[in-house]
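thread: overnight batch results

M.L. [08:02]
morning all. the overnight job finished for the chain we discussed friday. pasting input first so we're all looking at the same thing
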Amino acid sequence: MPAEWETHEATWIGWPSNRTDWPGKFSPIPWVYGEIARKITLGEQLRILVQDATHQKRALSILRNAHVDLAAVEFFHIPSDRGWTRDSGPMFVRGNKKKSPLSIIDFRFNGWAKYSDHKKDNAVPAKAAKALGLERIVPTYKGKEIVLEWGAIDVNGQGTLITTEECLLHPSVQVRNPGFTREDYEEIFAAYLGINNTIWLKNGIAGDDTHGHVDDLCRFVSPDTVVIVQEKDRTEVNYRPLKENKELLESADLENGKRLQVVSLPMPSPLYFQNQRLPASYANFYITNTAVLVPTFNDPKDHHALGILSELFPERMVTGIHAVDLVLGLGTLHCLTQQQPSLV
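M.L. [08:03]
and the structure it wrote out:
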């Protein structure tokens, strides 16, 4: 599994369609997607999942008005339930055979072990593989298909993976693969993703609807460096678990035995909608070929987060995307994108 900063052939997104994901706030969401699309197409192809021709027509209207380079846009008529492409879209790995240098790996998607409307989402990778003419790999372990969302993991492209116990090992809440142990997952990561070193963190951030996805918490920014969000307010619910996770990272080694480098990112002030905590986090950024797109929240710490990431990605334009409305859907930029690695 390549690192996200390695060259992309394309980025995949699912054009928004499920109004219940943004209750009472759906109307601005396609315009946010339009701005995201404009930034992505400055450096790579954009492949968009749409429900049908009518949905494509609506998307095209937004894209034109957002001044997106339509020559860099390709549509795929593949219906979905929600369209959070990081978790249910086509997931790509490089192969080790000449006949299949790139494959779609089709882990089963079960609605984050929470939502019943996931059957269309679960079928997306198989349809994308057919459309692209790529090999499709369905991972199994002990005779069962494996449930895994790619927001639950992050990799450095060299053999190290980071994940959380809360997401993959909790015995009773949103259980993806009942009875699986650390050792089981590490065997799966080795067999299907080329991972020989797994770093286990504890809990994710408060308000995370996925129950502990690592892409709201901690991200690789180079083969030997991660950023992790930290909370300075000792009375805030995130303070202690984030501090504990940083301590775990500071004692962690990479696949080559060297110590991992750890950089802190701030947490924005808490955001709520109808008394529900929202998973607002600067760690949910997305790395394109030419830019790093960072969710911002009308918060004084926006500039601090953008400055830190600018220093870590000096050859890419680090730019903020207004995400106060977007995060009502319980995800932001990384959650809605999926990179397709280049073979060049």
